[in-house]
Fold each of these.
Amino acid sequence: MSDSASTPSARPDPTARPRADALRDAASVLVLRRDGPGPRVLMGQRGAGAAFMPSKYVFPGGAVDAGDGAVALAAPLPDACAARLAQELRPDARPDLVPALAVAAIRELWEETGLALGCPGAWPGTPPEDWRGFAGMGLRPSAAALRFVFRAITPPGRPRRFDARFFMLDVAELASDPDDFSRACDELSHLHWVGLDQARALNLPFITEVVLAEVAELVAASGSGPLCPPETVAFFDNSGAARFARLGAPS
């Protein structure tokens, strides 16, 4: 799992349609809220008929789209986050993967919850169709507030397989009302803010429980100040023999 093994000729066309069983890059967002008696996180429930994780409560997120790399960010990811995202890339990683992951995280948050992470500004050209509502609010996507906190690869044999990156976000960084889900699509139901100490009582995928435990420690360490990014990022690699690593750790 090293990027050094890849060459420009080996990289795929990011606009190519992936196979149904292909390992797809994905991004999820944990939006944290600390304006009540305890920290809360935004979650929603997938449909009972969904091919991937039916009926499970999850964070907003989904696969990186072919066009995500072409969306210009008003502000990029913090350097440390971008550097860790660039670690241990798969040999078939698309060349624009790091910014595309940030764009995917913001797009999925917008589509599934109607919440906007961006800053005021005019788009450079005509916004893509799936960004027109976002642009209509006078916003451009900004990744400056995202914090990369977790990575996990789905084990083989699943109906959908993802190389998922999880980002943490403070609700105060949003450019929209955190209680207004009226612009959300219908992919997630029961969107609500749930206490970090209560979330594990929901019907969760195993990896979601692990991510919640990691983030709960970061929130506790942050206190009432800015959310602390992790010193290293946990990486559960289930692409073959299960392996655990820490991205950003000294070599």
Amino acid sequence: MYEYFKGIITKITAKYIVIEVGGIGYLLNVANPYAYSDKLQESLKVYVHQVVREDAETLYGFSSEEEKELFLSLISVSGIGPTSALAIIAADDNEGLVRAIDEKNITYLTKFPKIGKKTAQQMVLDLEGKVSSVAGKSEKQAAPQLDENQALEEAMEAMLALGYKAAELKKIKKFFEGTTDTAENYIKSALKMLMK
């Protein structure tokens, strides 16, 4: 089992990043790939978790040990798979998540993609009092801005990859038209809007 990779980020897509370690490129599924935009071609430590199934071996990447621990807690809940766990982490509202679990706020929890009432109740049952807020996340520098339409398109593509519906994203996209930001910030803002 892998704990982390230390290497160079060589590729960023809407669904994953590629980190090159010792001449081998590892594909890592991450919550918000564009959070790594300012680290492209730089050496970086990324924490990883490997999921082995009959038909696939998949690696998931995290910016911190705390984020990895939250992911592991989430996938321990019956009904939450790795993709749903990444979508929850991508919302970047870990304090809100912990509060919702501790306060049994099922309405908040069902706003995440593929999380229904039963799964939300299971989250509360399994994780109440056991998950702590992910603290000490490193402050990232502002990523270089892309053409506004390209950044917004990339953000929407990443949101689709996390399991959000195209109809939801169409409404969100209209809100951002005429604005200029990075894909990472568009994703964070869109997730905050969807969680209201």
Amino acid sequence: MLTTVLLPLKVVINFSFAAIITAIIGCLIILIGLPKLLLPVPAVQRMLSTLANSVFRLWGYAMSMLFGLTQPVRWHIEGDSELHRDRWYMILCNHQSWVDIPVLMHLASRNMPMPRFFLKQELFWVPVIGLGCWTLDMPFMKRYSRAQIARNPNLQGKDIATTQKKCEKFRHIPTTVINFCEGTRFTVEKHQRKNSAFQHLLPPKAGGTAFTLQTMGHQFDAILDITIAYPHSSKSTVWALLSGQLRDVYVNVETLPVTEDLIGSYFEDALFKTHFQNWLNSRWHRKDKIMGGLLEQAGQPPTVTVGYFSSK
């Protein structure tokens, strides 16, 4: 009874903490971005980018604190732990909930470079978000359609070249690039609609991951294949976190080498495209087994079975 009564209070505490901290950190990053915008001197911009990255790490620490603010979350992290803040990584991750981002921030704030995302060019003009992400040197991608390339062949490969140029800034600041390969959060309905061949996951989309490797592959020290599970959150994981009902977070980390056969022109080379899709699908089959192992470790049987769908 008392627990039920306290739920609204926990939601207010957790939501207010997350919102206030995000607003403060966001404003600090934007303040750093203003002189960076006005002073296009490489040495000055690198210094300001490093400062912004340090402030961004404070947000990572804050998101990590969120997991213990009103509830004793137990972390079950297995796999590779020899990670370093001064290296470059690409993350392949399943997408269960929006809570995945604070989970990755929790991991990164301790022993990984702070994460970056590839963003659509249009997001630059979104108030606060655009300037904040620009200050943090997150690449804004401008993709050209086949129709645009057909009308102007000079655009062929220009998106790759432009993004590679923007990513040169990452040579000065160790970076982790995140790819949620499924492209959307997992739900039973999506699993059924996509007729997924995986028991606990949606089919992965290879294009974005291949593009990231084509653009930055030679900068990465390793690929981090990360699997996240919330075994005891039968309802919304976001609600479970905010209401203090999230009890366990299971994470598996596997480090993979960046080999030359993973770097190629996915959108122009049909043989490479097939090879890369096969590679990513094989990783996803392995991830599916790891996911099942995490759920079994937590003492929860699978909630989804290939062929038909049911809720526990």
